[in-house]
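Format is sequence with structure; example below:
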Amino acid sequence: MRLASDMDYKVVFAALETVCGDIISVMGGPSDLPYGAVAQRLVTCMKQIQEHGRALEPVVRCFTAIFHHYDFDAQTPGNGYRTLVKVLQSCLLHIVHKGRYIASNYNSAFFRADHNASEMEAYCSALCQLRALMHLAQRLVNDNDYAQLYSLQEGDLSRRFVQEYSSMHKACFYGRCLGFQYSPALRPFLQTVVISMVSYGETYGKQQSSLGMAALSLLTSGKYVMDPELRGAEFERITQNLDMQFWKSFWNLTESGLLTGFSRIASSPVQMNITLTLPPVTLRLPLASDPSLTATVSPPIAHWGPGPVNMRLISYELRDGQESEELLTFSRTDPPPITASQLPWVQKQPRSPWLLIHFHGGGFVAQTSKSHENYLRTWSKELNVPILSVDYSLSPEAPFPRALEECFYAYCWALNNCHLLGSTAERVCLAGDSAGGNLCITVSMKAISNGIRVPDGIMAAYPATLLTTDASPSRLLTLIDPLLPLGVLTKCLNAYAGADCQSVQPAVGSGSLSSLGRDTAVLLSDLTQGASNWIQSFLDPARNTSGGGRSQSLSLRRTQSHEIRRPSSHTSTANSTDHLYYPPGFEPLRSECLAFVRPTSCPIIRNPFVSPLLAPNNLLRGLPPVHIVASALDALLDDSVMFAKKLKDMGQPVSLTVVEDLPHGFLSLSQLAKETEVASEICVEQMRKIFQQQSPTPALRKRPKMEETFQSTNPSG
């Protein structure tokens, strides 16, 4: 993060004060402008913005004085407090930019007064809600231990954070202000995703054929393009009301033939891309401490007994073993893959000394390796390594520990059968994003616990390391994040923990489009225009059971301001039973569409193999080098920072990279913008370091050469 100097925020607040004064002077004084009520709207709006700005400047000053205490190290600036200040600055810069345009062009014949007033009102609402988040962040500073981003203890601070989130207005962040915090190159794509969601959500559950539902979605999408306020309100309703089945049916579009075909055209071609199914047989692996002894690894058995494990093998070049009859006996590709004997012009390469094992993201509830092929193909080419991606069973049908058992079994099978995968496995790297990053860590923990070989390194992109609703500054971003609302996040976490599981059956066809007709898939694929590949990780909204229209009655009472203070070595608990604090006279906007967020109270959530951030040191000691690549604008940023700090404090080898201006799930966007391409390259560089290192190294306290954060781009209105 680069907003560390006092001068930065002082300049922004001074510019805000000036532009507010200019518009109030022009629109509020006597003039012959024909704007009437619109001028009064602008004056009222600018006065509100001016008030918010004056109240926020001292709050930002306090944060800039202390947020370095929460960084991983001095060379890696990044934590949720920095992010909140950065997001606030982005909002202010948009207001300043728009305000300067209004002040310079108000008397132009082409000036659209009503449009510009609506734009400014939308950002005024967003600024009001961001102000509320800054006050909530003040409370976190006071209530958490010194330099700690999470409390990590059972308490009611997180419960009250959930309560506050449930009633706060969020629609303003999904309309005219949609994606203002992200890289400008990604905003049009994000708008496409949101419009696709709300169009499909409007027809979801209606008594129509799948073809009719898709056609209606196409017909209704236009109004959400023309009316941003309607789009924002509808998106808020969807994320707070519709159930997991809606999201699963929508996400299935990422695996439709049209989208995956486009992905394969846009990504690197590969000579090997086959799916495999492993039968549930017991494995024996040598002990790491004494290879003359072996450890027994049973097949996955949780919930419904032994079952197969599905995987995908991707290789840029055809290598020895990959065309063998033995490997083809595991293949479930239809039609069977073409062998080297059928392609005599393809030159077969020797086995690679490297092997990459990948666990995909999707919040433990969605996606398969097919959804992640676009960047896996690129990785296989750039690293020249075979990749084995595991299609583990998904929640809620297959809650913990089924996915972990399957991923660990696949890892063990790969070690025993690397010769079939085109590798000698001299160096093995685990890689995963989001939920997959969690599984990389926990699979390695299981390898340590079982006494077998651990991988040579882990590359975890924006991993989920704490699967609770504990409040942190970065998790406050769930109020404004179109991809990771808190209600959606908790729904996925509870599904993985089994809290939402009525009856458990084997997950069948999790990546298919069986619930949608073929025509529906084609029509909706046209609608989303490739947008669905972005929708990764932790999207499964909670059902609303509270009803709407009661926002004022649910408003938390105002109390006296709780001032921020510098971090101290003890925790303040004096007000632990009070309501969340806002300054006198200030209250955030409340929603008429209330969210129902079920807290993550299931004891399984705190199992160290579910939430590795809570693991005791003895379970983490012995992990291989862990390279974490996080995003500053990700609600899970603090998961990465705290886990990296925990490993560093233990003396474990770890590095952390924080990239700027990108959302959770940026790997699936690697072909859309220069920033996402560079972020993907950073992930590749971290894996290359794992493969090329000669021996285990001490804790990596310095950032690698490629670990550079992106510079913020001044947003344009």
